[in-house]
Recover the amino acids of this structure.
């Protein structure tokens, strides 16, 4: 079957009590594409997915599957399949009947139904479990049954709502790879919702970042990482998060703490004189080699060894960037960046090769590549 | 989910007085059980006595010889009523449970505008005293020519709806919405979602509802005597009342009849109680 695209046109969803869950979202998903919707909890990504499924009515805008306007169609008539966060397997049905339920509801012949269930069970390694009830399965098996139930239908569109969030960390990584393979194999247009930016970056051909119901940026993972459109996307994408510091651009260079770094060639900021937020990825640093790259001094207070890489943390003598955007992005990633430190100072995390000789308390000189700097407007958060 | 871990006995944290407290607790509970069983004791003992031994003075004594004669004499008087009650109570409890399930499903999982007004209105029916509607009810039923078992069953179905609706609404409210969403995305509409997804997981609620409804319908006396005109259609409670006689009270017969009349409700409770078991939702949601 030819894959179909999804087009959202000005989709708005307002819940009772006037909570604006999705605000005028325009999004075009190509046929066969793997699109990830990502954002902190409560950003409207699940609502958007449920709008595509037809489980939520829109308050405004249109939803198209292919060329067909399905805005007012019931979910049972949309030919989409969905995998739920809780899996939502039918507890009183065997795995076989769970997987065949969609076909049964669409009045597919029993022989054909069994053939397709067997085929999908084979792909997912569920052959031996077909007669069991969901209660007799492990978490990973249930997850695969939920996937299988969606695949068997051969739907126009696959919708996945945080399908891996209930699995343990190891299984999640395996299933992530499986999902990618499955998508390559089936080529069905897929929309995947997650709050985990690592999942988003690894799975998505394109990633749509949402915040408070507003679409922030839709792009490939690489572009999101390299060219975030605003402070929120920059802070949200990437782990550990981007380092931010208040700085000042003047005379063709940027200045924060006691560090002065020339602006990269052709920068739009050349010639301006203004306050900016400077962002540098933890990977944007190297240990200084004295080849003329701008440097900064740092005294790491924590050194984390991760086997093949090493993270150092240190304070920078400049005001911390604390806007709503950075806070929203940080909240999302558990309490990864809990601030146990002086409120008014920026804090940097830097990734270094594991063979770098650093110890906590010993000063180290780091080189910064001007190309790796990001500049944001302190007021609007937009990239400059 | 929490897995049960078997801790070896000698590793558990124990209070010094633990064993004594447990003994005392069970003694107290046993005493209460005895207290509550006294009427049942008198009922059974009297019913099994030889008629000559039955008198209020010997109420507490065990029978000298077990005799089923009383049951034999009393059964013919009860038989018709017994059959009438079965014919009326079984369909009444099943139908009102099914309707209650449908109501509960729609009110909690397939919400419609105004559901929040409709539900309290249905519940309101629970608080209307029977006596206050008795005369109009009787009038309506005789106008409709339903002063028979069908009419009685109908009354129990309708009067059961508030409580069965409440039972099923609470039960369905505890079930994840995602299950219903999944069924919709899989292509089932409201009726098929109800039939294929909601009803199979609602067996515990059916058990509660049927036990409750059957007991209500079976034990009801008031509607039975008011609604049903013909003696051949009287339910067992009316028949039981009639065994009590008019001048002399044959205790043993009344007791035997009461014992017989209470068997079906006990049976329903024992049979349906199996479905009270938990774990019907096992495996539906994550792990």
């Amino acid at each position: 079957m030819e894959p179909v695209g999804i087009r959202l046109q000005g989709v708005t969803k307002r819940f009772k009590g006037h909570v604006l869950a999705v605000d005028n979202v325009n999004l075009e998903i190509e046929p066969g594409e793997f699109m990830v919707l990502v954002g902190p909890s409560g950003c409207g990504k699940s609502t958007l997915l449920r709008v595509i499924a037809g489980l939520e009515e829109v308050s405004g805008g249109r939803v198209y599957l292919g060329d067909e306007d399905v805005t007012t169609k019931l979910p049972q008539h949309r030919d989409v399949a969905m995998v739920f966060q809780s899996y939502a397997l039918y507890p009183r049905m065997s795995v076989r009947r769970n997987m065949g339920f969609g076909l049964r509801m669409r009045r597919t012949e029993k022989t054909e139904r069994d053939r397709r269930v067997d085929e999908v069970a084979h792909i997912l390694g569920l052959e031996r479990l077909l007669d069991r009830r969901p209660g007799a399965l492990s978490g990973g098996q249930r997850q695969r049954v939920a996937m299988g139930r969606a695949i068997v239908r051969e739907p126009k569109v696959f919708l996945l709502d945080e399908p891996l969030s209930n699995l343990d960390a190891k299984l999640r990584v395996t299933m992530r790879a499986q999902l990618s393979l499955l998508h390559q194999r089936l080529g069905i247009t897929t929309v995947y919702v997650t709050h985990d930016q690592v999942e988003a970056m690894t799975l998505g051909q394109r990633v749509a970042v949402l915040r408070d119901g507003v679409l922030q940026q839709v792009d490939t993972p690489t572009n999101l990482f390299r060219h975030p459109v605003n402070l929120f996307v920059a802070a949200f994408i990437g782990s550990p998060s981007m380092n931010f510091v208040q700085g000042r651009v003047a005379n063709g260079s940027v200045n924060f703490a006691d560090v002065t770094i020339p602006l990269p060639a052709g920068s739009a900021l050349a010639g301006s004189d203004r306050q900016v937020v400077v962002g540098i990825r933890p990977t944007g640093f190297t240990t200084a080699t004295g080849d003329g790259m701008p440097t900064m001094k740092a005294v790491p207070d924590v050194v984390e060894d991760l086997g093949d890489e090493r993270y150092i943390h240190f304070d920078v003598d400049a005001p911390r960037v604390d806007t709503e955007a950075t806070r929203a992005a940080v909240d999302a990633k558990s309490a990864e960046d809990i601030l146990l430190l002086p409120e008014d100072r920026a804090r940097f995390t830097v990734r270094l090769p594991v063979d770098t000789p650093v110890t906590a308390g010993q000063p180290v000189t780091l080189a910064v590549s001007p190309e790796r700097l990001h500049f944001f407007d302190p007021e609007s958060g937009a990239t400059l | 989910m929490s897995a049960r871990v078997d801790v070896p006995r000698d590793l558990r944290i124990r209070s010094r007085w633990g064993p004594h407290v447990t003994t005392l607790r069970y003694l107290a509970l046993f005493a209460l059980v005895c207290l509550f069983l006294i009427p049942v004791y008198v009922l059974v003992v009297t019913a099994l006595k030889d008629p000559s031994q039955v008198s209020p003075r010997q109420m507490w004594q065990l029978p000298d010889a077990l005799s089923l004669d009383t049951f034999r004499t009393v059964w013919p008087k009860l038989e018709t009523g017994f059959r009438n009650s079965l014919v009326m109570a079984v369909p009444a409890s099943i139908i009102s449970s099914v309707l209650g399930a449908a109501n509960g499903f729609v009110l909690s999982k397939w919400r419609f505008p105004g559901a929040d007004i409709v539900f309290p209105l249905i519940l309101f029916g629970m608080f209307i005293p029977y006596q206050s509607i008795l005369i109009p009810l009787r009038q309506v039923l005789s106008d409709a020519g339903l002063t028979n078992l069908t009419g009685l069953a109908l009354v129990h179905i309708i009067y059961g709806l508030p409580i069965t609706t409440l039972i099923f609404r609470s039960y369905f409210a505890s079930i994840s919405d995602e299950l219903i969403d999944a069924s919709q995305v899989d292509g089932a509409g409201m009726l098929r979602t109800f039939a294929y997804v909601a009803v199979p997981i609602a067996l515990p609620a059916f058990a509660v509802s049927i036990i409750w409804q059957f007991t209500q319908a079976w034990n009801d006396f008031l509607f039975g005597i008011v609604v049903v005109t013909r003696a051949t259609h009287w339910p067992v409670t009316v028949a039981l009342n009639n065994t009590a006689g008019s001048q002399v009270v044959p205790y043993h017969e009344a007791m035997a009849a009461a014992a017989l009349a209470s068997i079906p409700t006990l049976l329903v409770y024992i049979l349906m109680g199996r479905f009270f078991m938990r774990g019907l939702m096992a495996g539906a949601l994550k792990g």
Notes: Chain A has a mean pLDDT of 87. DSSP finds nine helices and 21 strands in chain A. The longest helix of chain A spans residues 169-186.
